Amino acid sequence: MSPKANQSSEPEKTPAAAPKADAAPKTSPASPAAAPPAAAPKAAAAASKPRAASPGGTDVRLSSKVEQRYHERSGRQLMYAPTEKIPIIEVSNFPALGRLTALRFLEWVQQNPNGVVSLPTGKTPEYFIKWTQHFLDTWNDAGTQAELTEAGLDVSTKPNLSNLRFVQIDEFYPIDPNQQNSFFYYVNKHYIRGFGLDPKNALLINPAEIGIPEGMTLDTVFPGGKVDLGLRHRVPTTALERIQYEVILAVDQFCSEYEARIREWGGIGFFLGGIGPDGHIGFNARGSDLESPTRLTLTNYETEAAAAGDLGGIEVSRNRPVITIGLGTITFKRDAVVLVFAAGEAKGGVVADAIQNTKNVRYPASALQGLPNARFYLTHGATVRLTERIIEDIEKAPELSPAELDKRVINLCLKLNKRLDDLREEDAKECRIVTAALKKSGLKLKDVAATTKAGLLRKIESGLDNPKNQTLLHTGPHHDDIMLGYMNYILHTVRRPSNKNYFTVLTSGFTAVTSSFLATILEDLKMLTDRREYLEERNKGALRIDTENTAARAEEVYGFLDGIAARNEMEMKRWQCRRMLHSLMVVYEDEDIENIRDRIDELLNYLRTVYPGKKDIKIVQTLKGMQREFEEELIWGYIGTRPEDVFHGRLGFYTGDIFTRQPSQDRDVKPVLKMLTDIKPDIVTLAFDPEGTGPDTHYKVMQVLHEALIQYAAKTKKKPEVWGYRNVWHRFHPADANALVPMSLNSMAIMEHSFLNCFGSQKHASFPSFEYDGPFCHQAQLVFVDQYRMLRTCLGREFFEHSENPRLRAARGFVYLRKMALDEFSGNARALAEITEAV
User: Fold this and answer.
1) Are 1 and 252 in contact (CB under 8 A)?
2) How far apart are CA 693 and CA 341, in angstroms?
3) What is the DSSP letter of 610?
4) Number of C-alpha atoms within 13 angstroms, CB side, residue 186?
5) Cis omega (within 30 of 0) for bond into 29
């Protein structure tokens, strides 16, 4: 198939959704439609600044009025040359990033109604899509007209997107284009239909139409989705391999023609894309030629891990080829508007690599350097590793906080591999950031180092201090977050009989369970019921669904744990299957085992035929969630917690959709408030992540907890202490934590053994981190070890090896926590809401 217009059948067009949230708690975002327009920049200033001056004598012309407005509002230089090599527009928060990109896109369309555009897929474009649709749908409303005028757009002419020519950036290969997790499906839904583009003017990637012989499908040509690109260079040895060879060559020809068509169009005039965990743009992974064309290629582990959620697991995404336009495709039109947008501290490293390093295949986005209209649109969080901006923030701050000084001096220790005690004044010259911080503070390096050391010692003492006579409510967004965050500390809190420990996970977590894992349990259950297992237990009432029967549910937990202790896989399987049997009875409201066997057959047929990554039907979502809940009871039963002290939140905002709902008062906050009222905790723990790439599950759960805690405090006049933790997704800097908890090899062994035995659905790491190819318990251990290394560098190995405290001598890892009074946490939560939600 040559690249041509989208020839798929056109589903009925539905109106684009306005960017609004359903009824939300006070800390949730308001509808963008209702958001007040941002403060207008001075017209005179806008008129007098056609260029944005940068240090080093480099000027960058800003022909875009939208960019002029946002640049002036940011208070930044556009580019701090020579350190920065690509201009940056900086905004405060994730939705504002979406609004900026939408306004710049619509401005460009007004000027280029027949232009060529290439737009991104995934979760990052959520607010770009919603804001664009909002502006188009409400173009003639007075409020929208005022906002557009303030941003510099010509409101007399509504942009007509139907004449644009569209280029799909990339696609997995092979993938059925009708699957909802294909990018072909995504761009048709959100851009072709959502933006009203003409499908006849779209270059799309439909793998099902590229070289597949008549009578065959992608599945029959590439069984299991496995493609051996080595066939390009060797002789096929079977009839199927000969067909595969011909199809691969057909895809290569398609890519060549796709590239040629883009160049015939004059190149891409407006490109918008995110940046991946390895710095990839499109699917141009680290190591890609900076002049690469459209091609069928393999990616790398980081990209495969990031794609695992879309494709249904790393088992599916591993070694999965992709079709992608190249870096040379993106940069072919030298005056193109090429925008890369990123939000959150997690993106800071790859952003800094692309902007501060010279062009290099290690940093794919560095290919944009030198393009006059290339820009990075970033939230403030995404700039955290940009040297000149850090220095400017230090210089402009009224005063530096102790934590800021600690951070800079600790970083210097790590850079020089020196103890705090060994730092000398001349060492500050090794780091411009440290020099700026010392100058701002008016302090000597040795004095700051001494203060930082004393602070670290206090934090370690706090980490060694175990609570007594306290009621602790440990909360998590997902079912492994708590144990991956600070399980070794929990081991100490539960060993004090005077403490009461309760655990709750506030989402059902069904997206973390693969269909193949659930199918395995159902197959085991069917085998056991073939042998008439569980009939006696059912007759005795252990499987009744009209009562909670906590004793029977606890029996399943303790029976499974007995199986772990005895190394008896069959015993573990038996209790696992009994819990699944009860879950099926609850879901189907039927205690008849024969009827349930029929339901198992139905479910197995569904699980065997559904494509990986598809959003599951409600019943399957519920069963997967109940499996995760059983695993959570196991992990805390492992250390002595009663199953009835483990609560399952199932907050309603968690739906498995690519663009999720916002939390609401009635649906999400009220049940958490009731739990707080019933438990009356002295301490509440929570995942305390920094600004991420938009409002994600961790963030939303934290804001629900915040709202419930504020209401609980107002109602009871009691203010629980809040302990923030982080794990493999985000990490505290030692300067930002205030309790540093030593972790021994024994604690690491407990964490690993309990994780691998209790979290059956996570044992094989189907949805791993891009930073580590393996189960999360192993990655968490490496995080704890690295955190110990940081402290060992700052304090010296002797501090630990010669300590009077055996826990410090045994330390081989450290957990970092942040203990906060409720008022302090509330201030942090509200500040985070402002940079994550407010527009």
Assistant:
1) no
2) 10
3) S
4) 25
5) no
Q: How far apart are CA 635 and CA 490, in angstroms?
A: 12
The rounded distance, in Å, linking the Cα atoms of 624 and 516 is: 11
Q: pTM of the predicted model, to two decimals?
A: 0.89
Nearest to 430 by CA among 442, 412, 405: 412
With 70 as the cut, is the pLDDT of residue 38 above it?
Answer: no
Task: Lay out the sheet containing 170-172: strands in order across.
Answer: 170-172, 322-324, 295-297
Contact 18, 34 (CB under 8 A): no
**Six-digit token string for 105:** 């896109």
Surface-to-core class of residue 358, CB atoms within 10 Å of its CB (0-12 exposed, 13-18 middle, 19+ buried): exposed
The pair of structure tokens assigned to 457 is 């010692």
Q: What length does the chain have?
A: 839
Identify the DSSP state of 430. Answer: G
Reported confidence tier of residue 829, pLDDT bands at 50, 70, 90: confident
CA distance 626 to 584: 10
Contacts for 412 with CB less than 8 Å, ≥ 6 apart: 418, 423, 427, 428, 430, 431, 434
HEC sequence for 16-75 = CCCCCCCCCCCCCCCCHHHCCCCCCCCHHHHHHCCEEEECCCEEEECCCHHHHHHHHHHC
Place of tokens 């790393």: 314
Distance CA 313, CA 833 (A): 31
**Residues 741 and 805: beta-carbon distance below 8 Å:** no
pLDDT tens-digit map of 207-239: 999 999 999 999 999 999 999 999 999 999 999
> What tokens does 651 get?
């907050």
Type and span of the H or E element at 297: strand 295-297
Give yes or no for a contact between 654 and 696, defined as CB atoms under 8 angstroms apart. Answer: no
pLDDT band (50, 70, 90) for residue 264: very high
Which secondary structure element, helix H or strand E, spans residue 675, and what is its range?
helix 670-679
H helical segments located in 357-505: 387-396, 402-416, 432-441, 445-464, 481-494
**357 burial via Cβ count (<10 Å: 0-12, 13-18, 19+):** middle
Rounded to whole angstroms, the Cα distance separating 244 from 574 reads 44
Distance, in Å, from the CA atom of 108 to the CA atom of 128, rounded to the nearest integer, reads 14
